[in-house]
Design brief:
Length: about 170
């Protein structure tokens, strides 16, 4: 009964187990601490599983400096990608990634100026659309107590202070 093949036509794949030469081990020891694993995979031609096995067998670890350099490069690439995506959205082009890129109307200091202006009794424009010039104008009327330092800070953050004129 042992002669009968339970799955005729299907044969079990025998996985080829790769073995590194001394030269390849020296190369991996040299480049692993300072290079990302994806790059090592591309350079060596091995899959990530095989490469991870070699690294584990050799007992290699990423060095502190090498790891920090790798993370810094990844961060720079991510920042550059975010900048590109924001530019694409601002110019009305479709996004190329599924990355969430919020567009802020105002930065933190500008939000602070607007909220403080409301607290102090200044009048803000309700039209805060991206292209609207009135979003950068803060108005005052006869009853508004003026604050010179506050208004100077608003000017620094791109706002104009104008007198409110009823039409």
């Amino acid at each position: 009964m042992t002669d009968i093949d339970p799955f005729p036509g299907k044969k079990e794949k025998i996985r080829q187990k790769y073995v590194l030469t001394d030269e390849q081990k020296a190369w991996l020891r040299k480049w692993h601490p300072i290079t990302e694993n994806k790059v090592l995979e591309q350079m060596s031609g091995y899959t990530h599983v095989t490469l991870a096995r070699f690294i584990r067998e050799l007992g290699l670890k990423k060095s502190g400096d090498g790891f920090n350099a790798i993370m810094q490069r990844k961060g720079e690439r991510l920042r550059e990608l975010r900048k590109k995506e924001k530019r694409r959205i601002l110019y009305g082009l479709p996004q190329q990634t599924r990355m969430y890129t919020p567009l802020k109307k105002y930065n933190c200091a500008q939000h602070s100026c607007r909220s403080r202006a409301l607290e102090k009794g200044y009048i803000l424009s309700s039209d805060c659309k991206e292209g609207s010039p009135s979003r950068w104008i803060i108005y005052y009327d006869d009853e508004t107590p003026r604050d010179e330092v506050f208004e100077r800070n608003c000017y620094k953050n791109g706002f104009r202070i104008e007198e409110w004129k009823e039409e």
